[in-house]
Amino acid sequence: MKWERLPLGPLQTNCYVLSNSEKEALIFDPGGEAPKLNNLLKARKLKPLAIFLTHAHFDHIGAVEDVRKEWGIPVYIHKNEQHWLQDPSSNGSQLFLAHIIQSSEADEIIRGEGKLEIGSFHFEIFETPGHSPGSVSYYFEEAGVVFSGDALFEGSIGRTDLPGGDHAQLIKSIHEKLLNLPEETIVLSGHGLETTIGQEMDSNPFLNGF
């Protein structure tokens, strides 16, 4: 499997495309600039199977509707944020942007943790709330990567001062879910560069002393 990072939208949020040898692809957090993402998929001759959201803040969902329509694929989101796609107040676009972001309802609702198969992809879903109430992370053991959204960054963690944020809950999520992964696991975050679980265990100042 191969992954590709594509910063998109007003905050240059990391969208990721994970593809396999059969040219199937999964899309994570299409934050904006749908034509740019769609053109990349076409240039790579990929066949997208689904869109997975780590959470539903505006900078992670800006291109959801256009990409879904372009490829006719389902959108997955956690139950705690399933209405945020339609609600500019909840997703933050009403407060932070000059325009609102809305899309139709998600096609698939994530109701808990567990394993999921789509196409030839096999992966695990972890509930990692704290940055937002419906934050999830997607772990692909075979590829050695976890898509952490805005839970864990290189040398940092997600902000918790937005509605539904909870600092103690976020720290708990990171320690109980993410830091239990193999240390060599690559962390693909919502912003910034990739890191590893081992690196964050050793040097992330927000996680020391917990």
How is this fold's topology laid out?
Blueprint: E1 2-8, E2 13-19, E3 24-28, H1 34-43, E4 47-52, H2 58-61, H3 64-71, E5 75-78, H4 88-91, H5 93-96, E6 108-110, E7 114-118, E8 121-127, E9 136-140, E10 145-149, E11 152-153, E12 156-157, H6 167-178, E13 186-189, E14 195-196, H7 197-203
Parallel strand pairs: 3-4, 4-5, 5-6, 10-13
Antiparallel strand pairs: 1-2, 2-3, 7-8, 8-9, 9-10, 11-12, 13-14
Nutshell version of this structure?
By secondary structure, the protein is an alpha/beta fold. Helix content is 23%, strand content 30%.
> What is the subunit arrangement here?
single chain
Q: Main sheet, how many strands, which sense, barrel?
A: 6 strands, mixed
CATH topology grouping: Metallo-beta-lactamase, Chain A
CATH architecture: 4-Layer Sandwich
CATH superfamily label: Ribonuclease Z/Hydroxyacylglutathione hydrolase-like
Query: Mind telling me the CATH class?
Result: Alpha Beta
What's the total number of strands?
A: 14
Radius of gyration: 16 Å
Mean pLDDT: 95
Through-space gap between termini: 34 Å
Report the order of strands and helices.
EEEHEHHEHHEEEEEEEHEEH
